[in-house]
Each structure stands twice: as structure tokens, then as C-alpha cells.
Amino acid sequence: MLVSKYGYIGIKGKKKSRHLGSSYLGAFFSSPKILETEFLSSSFGENSVSVFLSILDGKLASNSVGVGALFDVDKKELILTRDLFGRVPFHYTIIDGSTFLFSTSYTSLLTQSAVRRDLKPDVRRIKSYATVHGDAMTLCNSDTFLTNIKSVLPGHALRLTADTATSVPLLRFRPSKWTHLVSLEEFGEEFRSCFLNAVRASDKGPHERFASHLSGGMDSSSVSTALRFLYPDHPLLTLYNKSNTLDSDENLYAQAVAEAIGSEHHELIQSTNDFDLLREYIALSGQPSSKLSSPSSSWTLMKFAQSHHCDTVFNGVGGDSVVGTGFGATERAFADGNWNVVRQLIEKRVPYFSLSHQYPKWNQLSFEEKTDIVVQNFLYKQLSNKLMHSSLSEFWRLYNAVSKSFHISHTYFLRRGFTSLVNKSRRKETSQVMSVIREEMLKQSEEKDFAAMGLLDDPTDQAALRYSFRGVFNRQTLLVNEQDFASSTHMGMVSSSPFYNHELFELCLAVPDVVKFGDGIGRAHFREGMKGLLVDKVRCRSTKTPLRSHAQDVVIRMFNDSKELLFDSKTIWEYVDRQKFDHQLSILTNKKIPYNHKVDTRFHVSKTISLATWLADVVQVD
């Protein structure tokens, strides 16, 4: 039988049920029309049970899988499946070794008295969450923030019996299927086809009208442009979050795209009610916030779209990690000692050198002079990194090998080294730390779990593939997806992220980094694929959205509004070192320290506020 939140449906043999619509198990929507068809995900409706079981057993390949549950009465086995990218949450708990509870709503599990009875925050999960790059560099696994609630892995089936729990991948990425593609033009053509198919597939219409987030960056601009290309006559709203700060406003790029596609364009000022929105955001998902500061920007977009009768908001989320830049090609060539390739790639990068603004006469320099600066900058980073993370003998071995192929400017190195020492001296007041978690908790080790890597089928070039794969299937991304789903469904909306597409990501995994690197601008296969679609002002831009100076104001505002909760709480300080936190807070509020020296500080303060809110409002331990 198949199980949904409304009960169960008995199925015999290969008979298909007409009532198995495409939807999310356990989701809730405001439209009664949607509720009528909300049973299980499309993979159950498209395949007979016997076919689906063959997929589970690895006898058949599948290109799609959704959230669903199947109970085998004969084997007394419960099978839970989750969509490939974890866009829909799916959690479960086992009570007294005999009762399984599962839901796409984390908070619905928390309403059960038997679940609340054994609530215990997972210290290792909290440590990862509150450590700089901790979640972003860790593959997603079954752990959640509570020890008695687990997660079904994205793209996997969890097979549960009274005695066993086995997770098996339902889909796999096979980059080798694209080996027939060689040139940039071939990859670009295939990317265009896959991307348009991904946007089309992510559309769950029909809609009265739909909206698209348009930041001015290449990802959201491409999604908005593809929507207009696919639906030329459909009403399309494009939404831009205006920052009101000159150093980070991208409105000219967004306006250029909006004018090119003829959308109804709106510039929005995000809410300043940051802490109240944070509390609601956490309450809806049942987990600490995935945001680096406040959820107000995404909340403002969704609310505006909702007020304008849009049921879907498209976005470019996941574009960076799915597409890839190719910039890792230079580091890998350096690690392999392929000096000619290193020089060739660096020369291509010269026109796009990100530190050129530090050289007042940059535009007056010859290409050779510019190249030498970029080479010295690259060598300095590589050699100083080697010096810090290896023995002195290993460093000298590398130094001698490099000096045979490159001129190493000792003047440049001394100047950079002196500047680095001065900056470190000035930054002593910032005392950057990786985490404000208490020392005894930081010492707790966590076993590495590579189960999610089962989705990657190809054994070739594992280093590059694993890096790209981890960029998509990590804890941070999964938490973002789960909370995005919780907040959008609360509003009766759909948040659509077309970049999370099986075929598109598989293709991007197959593109060699040297092809992605292109002429030095990066993402060359993406740019090639968008020729003739995306306006060149955005398609050919080499810059990204700069660090936003107003972010520190948002975090300070959140802190001021959360003071009572923070300092009336005893529990948060069982996890966070109060002395470390107070020091980070003093850095954040020090106006003499530049905002770009406070990136980690903002992280520490905002994550502490989020954890304190979760402990007080969800776990309810204070």
C-alpha cells in the first residue's frame, strides 16, 4: 500500500492509480483544488509499484524520484523516498523501537508527545552549524539538530524494518554519459537545452501570473530570461531587493535584464523587522536558521509576490554550485607541477584580475607587467599556504621547483609579507575565531559520513567531482532547501529553483574545469549556452555582487531586538562560550573596524541568536 497523510491506498500488481497526483507528501496548501490531488509524488503515479520496486533494487535506472512512502505488508518493510536535491524536507523518528513516525514537516513531528519526551539537541550538529564553513564543507547526512529525529537522504530510499535501516541511492549522476562532448560550443549548446528543460520542468503551472527573483547576477537573470523565452505571452513579474547602499546595489544590471525581457519590474525594500521574521522562520521549519543574517529579503520577495496574485516565485538558487566556475583548474595544475598550464591559465585571467583596483596605474601597465603581478599574487598565495600547512623541507622542495619555471619576485613577496603582518597587527582587535562554541564541545569528534556520495557513479577524476558534488550536497544547502520549502508552503506559494535539476547538474559535472575556465572569466559553458538569450551586459560580466556593507547593520538590529531572549537564557550558554560571544559582539559594534573585517563576526553573532531562538521557541528548554 502507499501511504499519505490522508491515509493509505491499496495497490495490487502493476495497476496504476489515477488518483496518485504530483505533489508533496505532508505539505499543506491554501488552495482546496491542490489539496484534492495531494497524495504522493509523481514517481509513484508514473510508475507501477513493480517498476518502482525494481528501481529500489537497482534493476532499473530512473531520472526522477519524489517524496513518498510505501509499506510492504508481506515484508513488513516501510520505504521512504526523497527527491534528489532535498528540496522537500523528509524526516522520521523511531519510538520505542517499534513505531515509525515520518513527515515532510519537522514541526509536525515535534507536536507528538512521544517525540518531545526524548528531545535532545545534537551537540555535533550544533558544532558544525556554528563553525565558519562547518556546514558548507560537510556532506549532508541523516543527522538533524535533534538526536531522535533523522533525515532521509536526498535522492535515496530509506528501507526500514523492525531490525534494520538501510539507505540506498535511487538516482545516480553519471558524467561519463557526456563524453561525446568536447568543445566549448558543444557543451554550451547542450547546456542551453538542459537549462531550458530544467526551467520548464520546474514550472508546476498553470499560473495566473508568476514572479522571478532578479538580483542582477547571472543565475537569477538567466532564469528570468528563460521564463520569458519559454512563455513569451505570460505575465511575468521580476523582483529586485534594493540594498540602498552604493557599494552593493546591482539595480542597473537587473534593470537591463528586465528591459530586455519586457517584465513588470519591481524594486523592493526589505523589511527591517528582522528578529520577528527570524523567529517565525525558525518556528515554521523547526530548525535554526540557515541564513547568514536575516530571512527578511526572501520573506519580502515572497510576500510581495503573494500580494500580486503570484503562486510561484522562481529564483537562481544553486546556480553557483551547480554550474561551477572552473577556477580550480589553476590550483590543480599547480599541485600537479604542470607549470606551462599554470602560466597559460593565469595569462587568461589577467583581464579579470579581482585585485586590479589595488593598483592605481593598472590601466597604464603593459600586458606583460599585469601578467607578472597576477603571477606573483598567485605564487604568493600558493607558497604561503604551503609554508603554513607543511614541513619546511616540503616547502623548500616546492619553492625550488617553482623557481625553475617562474621568476619569483622577492620584492613582491617581502612587500606582501609586510602588508600581511601589518594587517594582522591591525586585526588583532578582531581576533577571528572559527567558532564561539564552548571548547569542550569543539573537541567532540564527528565521524565522516560519505553515504551521500553514493549518488555519484563515476570513479574518474574524483577530486574535481567530489568538490563540485559537495558544493550541492552539503548541510548548509540542504538546510536552506528545507527552510525554503517550509516558509513558501506556509504562504501557499511555490519557491522554484530550476538549477536543481538532475540532467543539468550531471552535464556540469562532466564539463572539464579547463573548459569552464574558458578565456579566464569562468563559467564559460554557461555563458556560451546563454548567447542570444541573456543580455550581454550580464552574460559577459566578470564581477559578482560585492560584500554588502549593510549586513552588519542587519545583524546589530537583530541583536538589539533579541537581547532579552539571549541574556535571559541559560541554555544557550551551555553551548556558546559567553566570553567569546561578548568579544565578537564588541567587534561587530566597533565602528572603527571596517565591515569587510567582520564577515566571521557577523556569522558568529547571527548563528548564536538563531540557536538561542531555536532552543527557546522550538526545543523550549528555558
UniProtKB/TrEMBL annotation:
Family annotation (Pfam families): Asn_synthase (PF00733)
Signal sequence annotation: none
GO molecular function terms noted in the UniProt entry: asparagine synthase (glutamine-hydrolyzing) activity
Name by which UniProt lists this protein: asparagine synthase (glutamine-hydrolyzing)
InterPro entries reported for this sequence: Asn_synthase, ASN_synthetase/amidase, Ntn_hydrolases_N, Rossmann-like_a/b/a_fold
Organism: Dyadobacter fermentans (strain ATCC 700827 / DSM 18053 / CIP 107007 / KCTC 52180 / NS114)
Gene3D superfamilies named in the record: Glutamine Phosphoribosylpyrophosphate, subunit 1, domain 1, HUPs
Residue ranges of domain Asparagine synthetase in the record: 209-585
Any GO BP: asparagine biosynthetic process
Enzyme type, top EC level: ligase
